[in-house]
């Protein structure tokens, strides 16, 4: 195992890990609520559900509805979000410095998210990541999505790196489950989105990280296997 060096490759979750996208989602939900003459939802209310996906956010915004009714609202939610994407979101503090440190060390990095790929791809030019992000796997790119390991396995294959030589960074238990199943060391991003009942200590990530700035140093990353795929 290698330690005290940046990994050969790092894969990141997107919402709640690299990008604080909650303000975009709050604007999306509130546009839907306004159209129905209903009270708006606050950032504090919606933020913990962001990493759980559109259905979880709709459950917060429309708690009086049943699952079937909320499911029917998902296309509208995604359409409004696409129109608003990036207007209010911003990188978490320290993310850009971390990415630059990885790049300067020769680390390849990419994104594996459960967000639909077409939406995730809209983020890349907004952040100037078109040439920097080596691989992007969305929630609809493959037949499976996290917590299944397939998205992480395919992402590693596409950058010609063994899964055991990559590290996956995410803020949800599904991220850590997927990484473990793929044989990929993991970092639980504690700065992200979590429900009150979530217990990151129980996820069994290889590392818990409180702030992106902790990952500016090689020693903060979990050890990996050699990089040959």
Shape: globular
> N-to-C terminal Cα separation, in Å?
15 Å
**Number of helical segments?**
8
Protein structure class: alpha/beta
**Order of helix and strand elements from N to C terminus:** EEHHHHEHEHEHEHEE
Mean pLDDT over all positions = 95
Low-confidence stretches: none
Q: Major β-sheet, in short?
A: 6 strands, parallel
Task: Bin the helical content.
Answer: 25-40%
Strand content: 5-15%
How many β-strand runs? 8
Q: Gyration radius, to the nearest Å? A: 17 Å
Q: How are strands sequenced across the largest beta sheet?
A: 5-4-1-6-7-8
How would you portray this structure in words?
- By secondary structure, the protein is α/β, with parallel strands linked by helices.
- It contains 8 helices and 8 strands.
- Strands 5-4-1-6-7-8 form a 6-stranded parallel β-sheet, sandwiched between helices. It has a two-stranded antiparallel ribbon with strand order 2-3.
- α6 links the parallel β4 and β5 (136-137).
- α1 crosses α4 and α3 packs across α4.
- The mean pLDDT is 95.
Task: List descriptors.
37% helix, 8 helices, 6-stranded parallel beta sheet, 229 residues, alpha/beta
Mind sketching the topology for me?
Layout: E1 9-12, E2 19-20, H1 22-35, H2 43-46, H3 54-61, H4 67-84, E3 90-91, H5 95-104, E4 108-112, H6 117-127, E5 136-137, H7 150-158, E6 166-170, H8 173-182, E7 186-189, E8 207-209
Parallel strand pairs: 1-4, 1-6, 4-5, 6-7, 7-8
Antiparallel strand pairs: 2-3
């Amino acid at each position: 195992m290698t330690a005290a060096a940046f990994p050969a490759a790092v894969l990141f979750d997107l919402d709640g890990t690299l990008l604080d996208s909650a303000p975009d989602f709050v604007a999306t939900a509130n546009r839907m609520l306004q159209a129905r003459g209903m009270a708006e939802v606050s950032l504090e209310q919606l933020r913990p559900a962001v990493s759980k996906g559109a259905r979880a956010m709709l459950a917060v915004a429309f708690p009086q509805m049943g699952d079937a009714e909320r499911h029917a609202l998902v296309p509208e939610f995604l359409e409004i979000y696409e129109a608003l994407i990036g207007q209010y979101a911003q990188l978490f503090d320290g993310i850009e410095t971390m990415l630059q440190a990885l790049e300067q060390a020769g680390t390849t990095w990419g994104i594996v998210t459960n967000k639909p790929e077409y939406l995730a791809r809209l983020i890349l030019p907004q952040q100037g990541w078109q040439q920097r992000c080596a691989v992007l796997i969305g929630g609809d790119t493959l037949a499976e999505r996290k917590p299944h390991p397939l998205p992480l396995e395919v992402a590693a294959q596409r950058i010609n790196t063994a899964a055991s030589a990559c590290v996956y960074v995410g803020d949800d238990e599904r991220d850590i489950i997927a990484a473990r199943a793929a044989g990929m060391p993991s970092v639980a991003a504690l700065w992200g989105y979590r429900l009150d009942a979530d217990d990151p200590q129980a996820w069994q990530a290889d590392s818990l990280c409180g702030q992106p700035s902790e990952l500016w140093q090689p020693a903060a990353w979990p050890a990996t296997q050699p990089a040959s795929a």
